[in-house]
């Protein structure tokens, strides 16, 4: 992963930076899914430990050709009113590495209810009483809010940045640009 491009949220008095970042991330996800890529990763260079805010920059990492096909995609170019699409640059030689991965809470009430219905033959009402929404375990990590294309529901995609000892192979990134094993440059 020798190259990167920054998608930087533009100031907008009517829309919060987080809403714009959510929209940028969703567009990027759709482009990565359409192109069936596994060689483009992301990071949020403004993120700080202990904060739930990912900042105002979505950094896209990859080889130059891969980044050109993503950053120059019409869906990304159409976000120019909301984000400054930076040019593709070479990663600094002294960059560290970071694994940027998705983290899912183990106790989603919806998931626990579905399991109760299937395992114990409960009705939806019984499952709601047994597993109320208050049982949800909230993660203390920054997140992106997305709309599920399959269910139409909004959900939070929690993101963890952790230091990595090396870059890995630059492959194996999801359609979100995340990976539990491959690292991206961190600077």
TrEMBL record:
InterPro entries in the record: CRISPR-assoc_prot_Csy4 (IPR013396), CRISPR-Cas6/Csy4_sf (IPR042564)
GO molecular function: endonuclease activity
CDD domains cross-referenced by the UniProt entry: Cas6_I-F
Source taxon at top rank: Bacteria
Pfam hit, one: Cas_Csy4
GO terms classed as biological process: maintenance of CRISPR repeat elements
Protein name: Type I-F CRISPR-associated endoribonuclease Cas6/Csy4
UniProt source species: Geovibrio thiophilus
Gene: cas6f
């Amino acid at each position: 992963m020798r190259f990167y491009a920054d998608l930087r949220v533009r100031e907008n008095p009517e829309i919060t930076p987080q809403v714009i970042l959510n929209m940028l991330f969703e567009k990027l996800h759709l482009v990565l899914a359409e192109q069936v890529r596994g060689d483009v990763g992301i990071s949020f260079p403004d993120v700080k430990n202990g904060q739930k805010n990912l900042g105002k920059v979505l950094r896209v990492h990859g080889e130059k050709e891969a980044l050109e096909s993503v950053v120059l995609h019409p869906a990304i170019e159409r976000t120019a009113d909301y984000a400054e699409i930076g040019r593709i640059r070479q990663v600094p030689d002294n960059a560290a590495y970071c694994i940027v991965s998705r983290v899912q809470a183990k106790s989603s009430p919806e998931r626990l209810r579905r399991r109760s219905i299937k395992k114990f033959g409960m009705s939806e009402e019984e499952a709601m009483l047994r597993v109320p929404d208050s049982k949800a375990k909230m993660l203390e990590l920054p997140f992106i809010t997305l709309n599920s294309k399959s269910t139409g529901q909004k959900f939070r995609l929690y993101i963890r940045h952790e230091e990595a000892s090396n870059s890995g192979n630059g492959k194996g990134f999801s359609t979100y640009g995340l990976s539990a094993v491959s690292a991206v440059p961190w600077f």
